Amino acid sequence: MLQPKRTKFRKMHKGRIHGLAKGGSDLNFGSYGLKAT
């Protein structure tokens, strides 16, 4: 997916939910993935 150069929420681009950007249905991150989706 395309990522904007500047975002209002910088926490999304720290690599914490890196897999979520590619496949939101994949719960790779356990409880955090469940919460995010």
Q: Secondary-structure element sequence? A: HH
Rg calc: 10 Å
Structural class: mainly alpha
* Number of beta-strand segments: 0
Helix content: 25-40%
Q: How many helical stretches?
A: 2
Strand content: under 5%
Average residue pLDDT: 54
Give a short account of the largest sheet. Answer: none
CA distance, first residue to last residue: 16 Å
What is the overall shape?
Answer: globular
Low-confidence stretches: none
Describe this structure in words.
The protein has 37 residues and is an all-alpha fold. Helix content is 30%, strand content 0%. The protein contains two helices and no strands.
Give a short overview.
This protein has 37 residues and is an all-alpha fold.
Q: How do the strands and helices of this protein lay out in sequence?
A:
Layout: H1 18-22, H2 31-36
Question: Keywords, please?
Answer:
single chain
